[in-house]
């Protein structure tokens, strides 16, 4: 504006300055809302800012944190993936994406994302620790599924027991393991045990189609046709 004053440029400059002041005010409010744990309000304010500041990685990371706190992990992943592209060597974003996928029970995508973190920094302590855990779990699940394909149901059950020991903290892995154990017991014609384990799964997930089918097969083995 000082270098080349003219009416048009002055108007444009004033408009941008007003917008900039408004965004700074919204940013302060968003940070305040986040600190007060009002994540819904923070998200709403960050939505307004990011509509203008589309390429701001740190604001996307902040909104992702709010989404995590609000129990909306898929939206958090979307923001973190954008942040990983917008900021060079963003190991933290890859680590967080991997953690979210892991908590959701998607061990394969978790493994893929944590590898991206280690590509950027092979000495990243938290990424390496997570990598070891996910890799071990992934290997056990792959091995169990291979046993099922080969009809080695006892071996598969044993392997899925190991899965539950490897990850006792995230409930979805125990549920998935029990679902597959229920399948193995039913296929192995161990009807009583199959009914017991399938019922445990269905108490947690009443509409689990796989467990319903496998329990039905087990009931057939016991001549319990009504059930």
TrEMBL record:
TPR repeats lie at residues 91-124. SMART domains: TPR. The keyword Repeat applies. Residues 1-21 are annotated as: Disordered. The keyword Disulfide bond applies. One of its GO terms (biological process) is protein folding in endoplasmic reticulum. InterPro entries: DnaJ_C3_Co-chaperones, TPR-like_helical_dom_sf, TPR_rpt. One of its GO terms (cellular component) is endoplasmic reticulum. This is DNJC3 protein. The gene is Dnajc3.
